[in-house]
Design brief:
- This protein is mostly beta strands.
- It has no helices and eleven strands.
- The chain has strands at 3-7, 10-12, 18-25, 33-39, 46-51, 57-59, 67-72, 77-82, 91-98, 103-104, 108-112.
- Strands 2, 4, 5, 6, 9, 10 and 11 form a seven-stranded mixed beta sheet that branches.
Length: 114
């Protein structure tokens, strides 16, 4: 079955960095567009960044210049490098595989606080 292992979340001070990873199994990873979303309680899940099969990327305006999405098809893994973190980046971050059918990871908590 399809499984995702997300890691890299945690508590970080404002201005700090974190790197999220999402390793997929059970899918042909290279044919899926991948994305990171985030959600805070009481709000809709929002797109943070996406990367297509040709490695073309897209970012939410709120993270442009601070976050970088990348993928390694040899490891079936998508990454989100987050720099210059702000308290408003605090959320549960989810990876998503997108093709004819979409699959979601279980989420990893990111907390930015002093």
């Amino acid at each position: 079955q399809v499984q995702f292992v997300e890691s890299g979340g945690g508590l970080v001070q404002p201005g700090g960095s974190l790197r999220l990873s999402c390793e997929a199994s059970g899918i042909i990873f290279r044919i899926y567009a991948m994305a990171w979303y985030r959600q805070v309680p009481g709000k809709q899940r929002e797109l943070v960044a996406s990367i297509l099969t040709n490695s073309r990327t897209n970012y939410a305006d709120s993270v442009k210049g601070r976050f970088t999405i990348s993928r390694d098809n040899t490891k079936n893994t998508v990454y989100l490098q987050m720099n210059s973190l702000k308290p408003e980046d605090t959320a549960v971050y989810y990876c998503k595989a997108q093709n004819l059918r979409d699959y979601w990871g279980q989420g990893t908590q990111v907390t930015v606080s002093s």
